[in-house]
Write a structure and sequence with these properties.
The structure is a single chain. The chain is α/β, with parallel strands linked by helices and about 300 residues long. The protein folds into three domains: about 5-75, Arc Repressor Mutant, subunit A; about 80-160 and about 270-295, Periplasmic binding protein-like II (D-Maltodextrin-Binding Protein, domain 2, 3-Layer(aba) Sandwich); about 165-265, D-Maltodextrin-Binding Protein, domain 2 (3-Layer(aba) Sandwich). It contains twelve helices and eleven strands. It has helices at about 5-20, 20-25, 30-45, 60-90, 100-105, 110-120, 130-140, 185-190, 200-215, 225-235, 245-250, 280-295, and strands at about 50-55, 60, 95-100, 125-130, 145-150, 160-170, 195, 220-225, 240-245, 255-260, 265-275. The strands form three sheets. Strands 3, 4, 5, 6, 9, 10 and 11 form a seven-stranded mixed sheet that branches. Strands 1-2 form a two-stranded antiparallel ribbon. The protein has a two-stranded parallel ribbon with strand order 7-8. Helix 1 (about 5-20) crosses helix 4, helix 2 (about 20-25) crosses helix 3 and helix 6 crosses helix 12. The longest helix is centred in the first third of the chain and has 28 residues, at about 60-90. The chain is rod-shaped, with a radius of gyration of 32 Å. GO terms for molecular function: DNA binding; DNA-binding transcription factor activity.
C-alpha cells in the first residue's frame, strides 16, 4: 500500500463521517494535531487533497469522495483478515490436510472427523488414505500437516506419538480347521496357503517376521493391495492370512475368523509430525480429538493380551 497505514485510513473515514477534525480526533482517541498529521501524510502520499476545509465544516473534495469507498473496503478487508488470523491462531479456522492408514481410516478417523467438525465447523478437512511409506514421505515434504501411521524406522526427522498397538491376527474362513482355536502359532500358519499384502507395507513386513520365526520362506499364493481384498479371498477359502486386529473395528463379517497368534507381533500406530515445522492450532486440535477418541474406545481395540 505504499506507506499508507490503517491508522491513516481510519482517520479520513472518521473525519468524513463526522465532518470535523475535533470530533474525529476524540473518536479515535488522538490529539487534533496528530489526526491532522495523519490526514496530511496520506494526502502527500496520494498527491491529492482529500478534504475541503472551511471555518465551520470539513467536507470531502472530489478526490476524497472517490477515495473514501476504496479506504472503507481496504480497512474492512484488513479487519476481516485480522479476525480470521486470530481465529486461525485459536484453531477455529483454517484447513487441515492429513494422511492415514486404511485400517485407521476405516475406523477411528471418520469418528474423529465427525467429532472435530462438531467442535470446529469452520475448519476444512482433507483426508488422504495411504500406506505407511507414502505417509512418511508426505509428512516430511510438508504435503500434509500430519500422518497417522506406524512408527517410522528412522525417526530423526519426525515426531511419533503412539496411540495403540495393532496386533497381528490369524485370518481364516469359519470352515478352516484352525478357526475355533484359542490361539495359533506361526508354525501352524505357514502350513497353509498364504495370502500376503503387497510388498513395502507395514503388514507385509510383519508377516515376513512371522515366517522368519519358523525359518520358512514366504511364498504367497496371492498378493493383494487392500485388506478388504484379502478378506474376500479368505472368505472364499483361497487361503489364509494375517491381518491387523484393528480390522475388527472396520468390518463386521461372519465369513471370516480372527484368531490371536501365539507369537505377539504388532505395529505401533501413532501420529507422525515433522520436526521441521510447527503444527497449526487447527491440526493440534484434531490430534487432541483423535487421542481422546482412542482413550475413550481403548477397551474396544482388540488385543490378545
Amino acid at each position: 500500500m505504499n506507506n499508507v497505514t490503517a491508522r491513516q485510513l481510519e482517520a479520513i473515514i472518521a473525519v468524513a463521517d463526522l465532518g470535523s477534525f475535533t470530533e474525529a480526533a476524540e473518536k479515535l482517541h488522538l490529539s487534533q494535531p496528530s489526526l491532522s498529521q495523519l490526514v496530511r501524510q496520506l494526502e502527500e502520499t496520494l498527491g491529492v487533497r482529500l478534504f475541503e476545509r472551511t471555518t465551520r465544516r470539513v467536507s470531502l473534495s472530489a478526490a476524497g469522495q472517490a477515495f473514501l469507498p476504496v479506504a472503507e473496503r481496504v480497512l474492512l478487508r484488513l479487519e476481516r483478515g485480522m479476525q480470521n488470523m486470530r481465529a486461525f491462531a485459536k484453531g477455529q479456522q483454517g484447513q487441515i490436510s492429513f494422511a492415514a492408514l486404511l485400517t485407521v481410516g476405516g475406523s477411528l478417523i471418520p469418528a474423529a472427523m465427525a467429532e472435530f467438525q462438531k467442535r470446529y465447523p469452520t475448519i476444512g478437512l482433507e483426508y488422504l488414505e495411504e500406506s505407511d511409506e507414502p505417509i512418511y514421505q508426505q509428512v516430511m515434504a510438508g504435503d500434509v500437516d500430519f500422518g497417522v501411521s506406524v512408527a517410522p524406522v528412522n525417526s530423526d526427522d519426525v515426531n511419533f506419538h503412539p496411540l495403540y498397538k495393532d496386533y497381528l491376527y490369524f485370518v481364516c474362513s469359519p470352515e478352516h480347521p484352525l478357526a475355533d482355536e484359542g490361539e495359533v502359532s506361526w508354525h501352524q500358519i505357514v502350513e497353509w496357503p498364504f495370502i500376503a499384502m503387497k510388498a513395502r507395507t507395514s503388514m507385509r513386513r510383519l508377516t515376513e517376521q512371522g515366517f522368519a520365526i519358523t525359518g520358512k520362506p514366504m511364498e504367497p499364493v496371492q498378493v493383494a493391495g487392500y485388506q478388504s481384498t484379502i478378506l474376500g479371498m479368505v472368505a472364499n477359502n483361497i487361503g489364509v492370512s494375517a491381518l491387523p486386529s484393528s480390522l475388527k473395528l472396520m468390518f463386521r463379517r461372519d465369513d471370516v475368523r480372527l484368531v490371536p497368534i501365539t507369537e505377539r507381533l504388532y505395529r505401533d500406530i501413532g501420529v507422525l509430525t515433522s520436526r521441521r515445522r510447527e503444527l497449526t492450532p487447527a491440526a493440534t486440535g484434531f490430534i487432541e480429538v483423535l487421542m481422546e477418541l482412542v482413550e475413550a474406545n481403548r477397551s474396544l481395540l482388540p488385543s490378545p493380551e
